[in-house]
Design a protein that fits this description.
This protein is an alpha/beta fold. The chain has 3 domains: 81 residues, Orthogonal Bundle (Arc Repressor Mutant, subunit A); 107 residues, D-Maltodextrin-Binding Protein, domain 2 (3-Layer(aba) Sandwich), CATH 3.40.190; 101 residues, D-Maltodextrin-Binding Protein, domain 2 (3-Layer(aba) Sandwich), CATH 3.40.190. It contains 10 helices and 12 strands. Strands 3, 4, 5, 6, 7, 10, 11 and 12 form an 8-stranded mixed β-sheet that branches. The chain has a two-stranded antiparallel sheet with strand order 1-2. Helix 1 packs across helix 4 and helix 2 crosses helix 3. The chain is elongated. The protein starts with a helix and ends with a helix.
């Protein structure tokens, strides 16, 4: 029995498929099947029962699942603990973020960290942007070290440590030729009179705007939805449609024909760095967390 076999077993359980598990682990399906058969032979039990194209855990497999999960967790914890005592030429920080990195100055500060806050270590930043729900899932499953997300949507917040980053204030965005463009301030009721373009429902920004309008008794159906805020701004710049977005996402240098107008309602969202309490991370990830904590204290 080896750790690779345990990881293959857990991946099969997660995906419910030998082929999908093989793809995720970057090996051939035949190699994975041979590894699982070797494990079953060593244990003297069947871990899976196979019926047509579906697979199920046997009773013994269900018992073995607890063992495998605990063993892999202990293995990862030991490696992270001992990592502090081992000199390495490079270390990885696993980060996930909602799609705000370029607009919120995150990349500049990461560059500063890699330049000034490390000594003999090459920092590998494993960072991807995804939806709030996907980022939270990876955070809860210990697949990442920390995340940049909207805290009002974070479930069981007591399980996490939080470093506030910034407060997003929402504004109305429209073209300079739009009838609302002469106003210094508008209400959601004013906005509801015009075609509304929003980010897709997979974005929590959609949820914030739609909920705020519903609280005002305004039930509008957006005339356009898109997953990318820059596409959204292209639409707003060249049409009579409006949008409601965080002010920091509306770059008027890139979109010079767009103007932002303050909302009468207090519509905002809190963005923060978040990590699970008691989760072991390597030394460089700890240093990165402390860097952001120092930045927040200086800004506060």
């Amino acid at each position: 029995m080896n750790f690779d076999q345990l990881k293959y077993f857990l991946t099969i359980v997660k995906t419910g498929s030998f082929s999908e598990a093989a793809d995720e682990m970057f090996i051939s399906q035949s190699s994975m099947s041979k590894q699982i058969k070797a494990l079953e032979h060593e244990l003297g039990i069947d871990l899976f029962k196979r019926e047509h194209s579906k697979i199920y855990l046997t009773s013994a497999g269900k018992k073995f699942l607890d063992y495998a999960q605990n063993t892999i967790k202990d293995h990862n914890d030991i490696r992270l603990y001992l990592d502090e005592f081992v000199k390495k030429s490079s270390k990885t920080i696993r980060i996930r973020s909602i799609p705000v990195v370029s607009a919120y100055g995150v990349s500049e500060r990461i560059a500063e960290f890699t330049t000034f806050y490390t000594s003999d270590v090459n920092v590998i930043i494993d960072m991807h942007e995804s939806s709030q729900d996907d980022v939270q899932k990876e955070l809860k499953e210990n697949k990442i070290d920390l995340a940049l997300i909207r805290t009002e949507f974070l479930e069981n917040i007591d399980e996490f440590e939080v470093i506030p980053y910034l407060d997003d204030v929402f504004v109305l965005a429209c073209s300079k030729n739009h009838p609302l463009s002469k106003n210094k301030e508008v209400s959601l009721k004013d906005a509801a009179q015009y075609p509304l373009s929003l980010l897709s429902p997979s974005s929590k920004l959609y949820t914030i705007v739609v909920k705020a309008m519903a609280n005002q008794g305004l039930y509008v159906k957006p005339n356009c939805l898109t997953t990318r805020h820059k596409i959204l701004l292209e639409i707003v710049q060249k049409s009579d449609s409006i949008s409601i977005l965080p002010d920091r996402l509306v770059d008027t240098k890139i979109f010079p024909n767009i103007i932002t107008i303050n909302l009468k309602e207090d519509l905002h969202s809190s963005v923060a760095w978040v990590r699970k309490k008691e989760q072991r991370v390597n030394a460089i990830a700890k240093e990165f967390w402390n860097y952001w904590k120092q930045y927040y204290n200086e800004e506060a």
